[in-house]
Amino acid sequence: MSDTNLKELISAVAARQAEFADLIVALAPDLSSQAILPTDLALELSTALHDLEERATGHDPLYRLVNDHTAPALALNESGQVVALNVGAAQLFDMQSGDGLVTLGISPEAFHQFKERLASTQGPTLLKAYRKGSDEHTLPLILVGMYQQKLKTFVLNALQQHWPESIDLAFADVFGLSASERHILALLSRGCSSEEIAEERGSSVATVRQQIKSLLQKLGAKSQVQAATMAASAATAMDTVKAKGDLLSAHYDDYPMSIHEVVRDHRRIGWRRFGRPGGQPVLLLHGPSFGAGDFPDERRLASQFGLDVIAVERAGYGRTEPSDKSEDPLESQCHDILAVLGSLSISRVTILSHEVALIPALALLKQPGIAINGIVSVSAAPPFKELEQINAMPAHQAIFIQAARHAPWLARLMVRLLILRMRKLGPEQWPKVIFEGVEPDEHIIRKNSLRQGVIAAYGFYINQLGAGYLEDLRIMIQDWGHLLDAPNLPLTLIHGDCNASTPVPHLSIFRGINPDLTIELVEGEGLTLAVSQTERLYKALATMANASGNRLAREHG
């Protein structure tokens, strides 16, 4: 195919006027030979994709949710993680997509109460937030929040002059304001003086002043002007609210996930925590398909089995910045993980790894300062020793590995197109880029019970425009087979017998390197068993962690 036709085809695929499979067919001859597209064409194609990405952003439903507002606005998923925000919110809170409640100065308890109000009262409600560095005497920033059922997202924007009944009730709930105090606050917002308020209410000026003093204390305001400004700000925000919001289900998620970060060598490393605090420490190393604790069942089962799960956002995913190109990507990921565990004083863990994350899980065995009870690996692919392994994969998955084996710029091009398609598909449909036409995975990932996790994971994967996929490709194409030779370590590979990405016969490569590892095949499952067989996985983790604990107790008994 000529360069011109190829460029036109890429534009058509990005615009969903042609199928991704058409592009794979067009590129296949070049990817299966030594002849590669010239670098100057790569530059042209990358420029074209950048323009398309800019346009695609405007079609992103989450992007539209917050950019329809003139006031600072942001969207949180049901775990309290920021999945989208406009420029105003980014500047106001000095934050970015992927941050959690702590960046907003919102406690888990306050967020839980916020969700309870949305579950019991139709209409928007309030939430107090604080800028970074605020202390207990700082005037809070008040956000008006609604729930969007379709995207399972909370939309918050800066409270700006009048408020409906639901907001009035929220002032009572959040700040403990009495009906009299709320009436006085409304009069203050109109610019009324103490004398005018006393006349309006038929009270003495002394009584009104005492009520105003109480009102200021409850609001955390230092003056009547601050209180009036806070109240008067409601109208502008409410005017920007285009929809009245949905009633949150009474069965909203009761298994929260906290969001944190550490800094290593001037790089931000994001991590999450869920399950039972103080339980058996589990290190979750996510793959490129199922988020990092984004599915509610993971959090529920972690708590049920007494597991304290630390999910490190690997390089290029979520908020963790990619490693420096001069660094070995695998070594860098190990140091990131150790930085997180070190900040928590955790020195012994059991590991759950998804897909490609088996590689950094094994690489940790070579690192000092950490003891590993064992590894439960889900849907891992063995080292790519034979080209047949890649050719056996679904073409729309194999194309990325084929591209990475040829040239880094070609891999970047394919990943950018992948992210563009994910944006086009949106938060509910993005898994099609991985599972479309692949059974049983396509059927499983479409289940309504997984919808919340699918939507929550969307921002996690597009946040850095595919940098995480590129990091994974860098470590996948290396020869990492020697890492599998791990003596005296329980290593269990759990694999679906219908996994189209890694057919069962290819698992013999694992056994050829390490005959002592355990392979458990799950009948009728594919790549998606990470979310369809969650209970099995967490039960295996608990069993492995407890067995290690009992063994250590005997040794030190």
Distance between the termini: 71 Å
Summing up helix and strand content along with how strands pair, one would put the structural category as alpha/beta
What's the pLDDT, averaged over the residues?
Answer: 84
> Which regions contain 5 or more consecutive residues with pLDDT less than 50?
235-242
Strand fraction band? 5-15%
> Biggest sheet: strands, sense, closure?
8 strands, mixed
**Tally of alpha and pi helices:** 25
Major β-sheet strand ordering: 6-7-9-8-10-11-12-13
Detailed description of the structure:
- This is LuxR C-terminal-related transcriptional regulator.
- Residues 170-235 form the HTH luxR-type domain.
- Keywords: DNA-binding.
- InterPro entries: AB_hydrolase_fold, Sig_transdc_resp-reg_C-effctor, Tscrpt_reg_LuxR_C, WalR-like, WH-like_DNA-bd_sf.
- There is one protein chain.
- The protein has helices at 3-14, 20-31, 39-57, 61-67, 87-93, 108-120, 165-175, 179-189, 194-201, 205-219, 224-232, 234-240, 296-304, 329-343, 358-363, 387-391, 395-406, 408-429, 432-435, 441-445, 451-462, 467-476, 508-513, 529-532, 534-555; strands at 73-77, 82-85, 125-129, 141-148, 153-158, 257-264, 267-275, 280-285, 307-312, 348-354, 371-378, 491-496, 518-522.
- By secondary structure, the chain is of the alpha/beta class.
- The strands form two sheets. The chain has an eight-stranded mixed β-sheet with strand order 6-7-9-8-10-11-12-13. A five-stranded antiparallel β-sheet has the order 2-1-5-4-3, sandwiched between helices.
- β12, α23 (508-513) and β13 form a beta-alpha-beta unit.
- α3 runs parallel beside α18 and α8 (179-189) packs across α10.
- The longest helix is centred in the C-terminal third of the chain and has 22 residues, at 408-429.
- The N and C termini lie far apart (71 Å).
- The model is unreliable at 235-242 (pLDDT under 50).
